[in-house]
Amino acid sequence: MIRFFDVVFSGLGLLLGWPLLALIYLIGLFDTGSPLFLQKRVGRHQKPFVLVKFRTMRPDTASVATHLADASAVTKIGLFLRRTKLDELPQFWNVLKGEMSLVGPRPSLFNQTDLIAERAARGVFDARPGITGLAQIQGIDMSTPQLLAETDALMLREMSIVAYFKSIIKTVTGSGSGDRIKPL
Q: How far apart are CA 75 and CA 58, in angstroms?
């Protein structure tokens, strides 16, 4: 049932949201010259997939977990996109393709070996990664791999249609801070 809602909501998001997506894309062309950010991430069953987001950092920024990134790499437009979570909208495409869910554990980078090991030990990779989840709502980022993996496993154990919609509503209304970038 959750996959049904994923397909419906991501399809509607892309269909109805295309003017906003196009506008952000155009603004991104002027901001960084490269408005989309594509990155290989760890997916369901630890299979790789390419995550699509709007770029929020300069194109020459090193590919590291957000909490390790330098705050000066974030553009002014990127800061706005991060705060409003609009940078996540292109991931509706990943959801529609079946690589992600709207709600699930945020996909990690392949170089985050501690997090991958913690998640593997808890069966987190049995689920599709998500655009949002319990950890994001609670402000837990990838800098605490064990806590993040425990929270992801708890979310998956308690996942229901009600929990799914609560997570989406809490994300849209601004709960959680997302992955934090170290201050300047």
A: 7
Q: Tens digit of pLDDT for each residue in 88-100?
A: 999 999 999 999 9
Taking 70 as the pLDDT cut, the residues of the chain under it are 63-69, 176-184
Residues near 135 by beta carbon (within 8 Å), at least 6 away in sequence: 105, 106, 141, 148, 151, 152, 155
- Please report the pLDDT score of residue 175 as a whole number: 72
Residues 6+ apart with CB under 8 A from 100: 43, 49, 51, 91, 94, 107, 128, 129, 130, 131
CA end-to-end distance (rounded Å), the chain: 44
Domain ranges of the chain: 2-172
Residue owning tokens 């791999």: 145
